[in-house]
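Thread: quick sanity check before group meeting

JM: Hey all, I'm pulling together slides for Thursday and realized we never actually wrote out the predicted structure for the chain we discussed last week. Dropping the sequence here so it's in one place. If anyone has concerns about the input, flag it before I start.
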Amino acid sequence: MQELPSASPHDVPPELGESVNLVRRAQDGDREALGALVLRYQDRVRRLVRIRMGPQFDGVLDSLDLSQDTWLAAMRGLGGLQARDHSGIIAWLARIAENQVLDAADRLNTAKRDRRREVPLSEDGSAAGAARGGSPSEEASRRELKAMYDACVAELPPEWRQVVLLREYSLAEWPAISEQLGRPSVHATKQLYRRAQLRLGALLKERLKG
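JM (edit): ok, ran it. Output follows.
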C-alpha cells in the first residue's frame, strides 16, 4: 500500500546528527548549545503541547515564551536526556514545556484571583518566524494554517490523533510508533495513519470552505 503523504504544515525536520551534537555539547556545560537545541524544536513542541493539553491552555501557551522557560528548566534536567532520535528529544522538551504551561496557568489563575495585574497574551511568543524570514503577511498565513491543522488533529479520535502526533509532531519511527500504540505490525500502524490522514483531509476541507 502506498503511504499517503502528510499534509501537515510542519517545517522541515532539523538534521538529527547536529541535534545529537548539540545535546552532547549541552551536557558538557555549553549553554549556547542547549539554547540552540530548544530553538530547533520549539515550534513542534509548542504545537504538540497545545494539542495534548487541550484548548483550555491556548491562552497560557501562546503567552508562554517556551524558548526561555523551557531552556531554563532544561538546564536542570539535562542529564536525563537520551538523544537517540528526534522523538526522544521532542518528548523530553515537551514534558518540560507541559510543566511550564501548568506553572504559567497557576500563575495566571492567581493573578486573576488577586486582580492586581493583567497578563497580556501574545499571538506567538516564538522567535522562529523571524528566523525563517518572509513578510509579516506570509508569517501570519503560515501561523493560521498551522493553527487550523492543529485544530483538526485535536478533533481526531484518540488513537488516530496519537499516531499523527507521534509521526508528524514527534518524528517517531514506525517501529517505535507501533510499539507505543500496541499495533500488531508497522503495516497496521501505517494503515491507521492513512485513515487519520484521510479524516484530516476532510476536516481541513470543511474548515477551508467555512
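AS: nice. Residues 86-114 form the longest helix (29 residues). The chain has two domains: 13-123, 134-210.
JM: adding both to the slides.
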